[in-house]
Design a protein that fits this description.
Blueprint: H1 10-61, H2 65-146, H3 164-170, H4 173-186
Helix pairs in contact: 1-2
Amino acid sequence: MYLFPQTIAPALRTHIDAQTAFLNDMSKSLFSSFQQMCDLNIQLVQTMLEETTLASKQVLSTDRQSELLSAATARTQPTTEKLRAYQQHIARLAADSQVELARVTEQHVQNTTRTARALADEVARDATEQTERGLRAQQETVRQFSDPFIRSGNGAAQPHASGSTGQSQQMPPSQQQGSKDQRATTH
């Protein structure tokens, strides 16, 4: 016994469409955030490679140890500032992602909730109808088994009519003779 008929119910179709639209927009938002995070990481790696290349050129081009130390310390401050900027970009990206996910959720929640309610109402209505049909069928079956002389539809077997002929049919033959004698003497 299936809860839904073989064809897809309209309420189910609209709920699936609403859920699909919600999940599509949510995944687009997540993938966009992921792509921005990947772009930011690529940019950081490129910047760090450029800084490392410049620092190594300066270190290799120095003649004295004092210049070597000053070249290395001169490159640490820009690298630190770039890492701080990277952290700020990540924080901004995370905040923007949360805002976008909240917007998408707010946009789709009302429609998804409405279609879920409609689907639940339809399922409950169908279940109630199925239960009532099953209960009626069980009651009819019990009624037919409890009185085997009643046949629905063809009317072949009828309840016995009351009367003098009915009495003679229901009494055993020995009692039928005695009742006939009584009737004859009273007349």
